[in-house]
Amino acid sequence: MAGLFITFEGPEGAGKTTQVELLGQALANRQPVLVREPGGNELGERIREIVLTGTLELDAEAEMYLFMAARKQLIAEVIAPALAGGQIVVADRYHDSTLAYQGGARGVPTTWPPTFPRPDVTFLLSVPVEKGLERLAEAGKQPDRLERESIEFHLRVAAAYERLAAAEPNRFARLDAAGSRDHIHIAVMARLQPLLDRLDKTAVPPG
Ligand code: TYD
């Protein structure tokens, strides 16, 4: 039995985390598994410290492998067992982040490892780069290593996301993040409804 794998992607300040929370609440009766990357387990949290808050100088490809190592551990411990058990998994960033940040913006050659499950749907929250960075600054949070990169870097991230979405129109749902959080949430639920209906049909009835 396969569950449903939903991921949220986008450049900085697009409001992914808010949408993951709203979706988690909307699906609460189905007990979805919510994960964020990097993190969500011990290895992921340790790697998060190295790649996001640490001061180590990292080679770009080494940085990519760290993100991917964290991801593989999360897949093994959480994502794959949940999907195999028919559950819904919602991820705040996943492998498309690596394709956009390390691939598109840093120029590292990237691939999709065959052992990384493909999401059923990926929501790309699209926001003008300047606006996203402004939102971050307003939130007053200490910027992490990636957030401190130049505006050109973030423009390359956004352009890479657009290319990924254009290349896989069936998997990606691109949503304009300039709308209100409630409007975006309604669009997310509309896109998911047929997938939720299908999940209900394949679910084994209790007892
Ligand atoms: P983000 O998702 O914005 O989380 P938070 O709200 O905790 O800041 O931060 C994660 C950062 O890591 C973001 O700048 C994108 C970057 N990142 C990569 O560069 N590659 C990856 O594969 C992933 C998962 C994240």
Q: Strands, helices and their partners?
A:
Layout: E1 4-9, H1 16-26, E2 33-36, H2 42-53, H3 60-84, E3 88-92, H4 95-105, E4 121-126, H5 129-139, H6 151-167, E5 172-176, H7 181-202
The structure holds thymidine-5'-diphosphate.
Thymidine-5'-diphosphate is lined by residues 12, 17, 37-38, 52, 67, 93, 97-98, 101-102, 144, 146-147.
Quick description:
The chain has 207 residues and is α/β, with parallel strands linked by helices. The protein is built from seven helices and five strands.
Please, could you describe this protein's structure?
This protein is α/β, with parallel strands linked by helices and 207 residues long. The chain has one domain: Rossmann fold. It is 53% helix and 13% strand. The longest helix has 25 residues. The chain is globular and about 50 Å long. The model has no long low-confidence stretch (mean pLDDT 94). Bound molecules: thymidine-5'-diphosphate (TYD). The site of thymidine-5'-diphosphate (TYD) has 14 residues, from helix 4.
> What is the domain total for the residues?
1
Oligomer: single chain
The top-level CATH class is: Alpha Beta
Number of helices: 7
Under CATH, the topology can be stated as: Rossmann fold
How much is the radius of gyration in Å? 17 Å
Mean pLDDT: 94
Task: Give the helix proportion (percent range).
Answer: 40-55%
- Derived from helix and strand composition plus strand pairing, the structural class reads alpha/beta
Kindly report the name of the CATH homologous superfamily: P-loop containing nucleotide triphosphate hydrolases
- Give the CA-based shape: globular
Ligands bound, unique = thymidine-5'-diphosphate
How far is the N terminus from the C terminus? 16 Å
Summarize the helix and strand pattern as letters.
Answer: EHEHHEHEHHEH
The tally of strands reads: 5
Strand order, sheet with most strands: 2-3-1-4-5
Largest sheet: 5 strands, parallel
* Low-confidence runs of at least 5 consecutive residues: none
Assigned CATH architecture: 3-Layer(aba) Sandwich
Strand content: 5-15%
